[in-house]
Amino acid sequence: MTGAAVALRNVTKRFASHLALDDVTLTVAARESVVILGPSGCGKTTLLRLIAGLDVPDEGEIWLGNVQAAGPRRNLLPPYRREIGFVFQDLALWPHLTVAGNLQFVLDALKIPRMERSRRIDDALKLVRIDGFATRHPHELSGGEQQRVELARALVGSPRLLLLDEPLSSLDAELRAAMRSELARLQRTLALTTVYVTHDPEDAAVLADRVIEMRAGRIVAVTEPRRTEERA
Ligand SMILES: Nc1ncnc2c1ncn2[C@@H]1O[C@H](COP(=O)(O)OP(=O)(O)OP(=O)(O)O)[C@@H](O)[C@H]1O
Ligand SMILES: [Mg+2]
User: Fold this and answer.
1) Residue 50: which domain range?
2) Are 31 and 191 in contact (CB under 8 A)?
């Protein structure tokens, strides 16, 4: 009963003999934006996958609000019931569906009333500035456009928690800056709790309430930068 949106307690995850997460304890407050930085292979994606329920810890517990979502080698809450929107590095758009179809799929799974669906899809696509592409298929989009659709797909279900794994990596500098500001705005207006993995210190400067640095499966530093937008 901590009021935390997400809590990991002493979470360890091994792949064969490799320790991908080593006794990680982390809480994220409701509406907080946490940015995770760290070198390739340090366990960032593994951490997000465990929060999303796509994988289970070997040891420790994961809590979402007051609900225990996972324990040692056990998922207690399936991914689709976690009210999480995510953009993962390797989770592509569904190739056989149009852009609108990709978003529709999420709304169908959530049983959103039919009348509401097209408005929600329009809104989400506008948000990422890609509303002209609703009827295209993923292979008809550039990498950056696909990434924006992935972001729209993560947002369309109005998640409480947003997990983003390098969501802007395919965008050019200008679009990246624009999307970053847009995300910061969304976090505020939608009261989102966000865990955001990046290699870009600028992302952290704009988006982070708290920056978590990881090395070799462990959290090695936690800092609280003041957000750029809040600087007078
Ligand atoms: N399914 C898996 N099977 C075996 N090893 C894995 C698996 N998933 C991840 N690993 C290993 O666990 C470690 C952490 O991987 P992870 O994907 O979490 O790193 P990361 O911090 O996201 O790196 P990057 O910045 O390159 O995306 C790596 O050494 C990786 O090789
Ligand atoms: Mg990764």
Assistant:
1) 1-83+161-232
2) yes
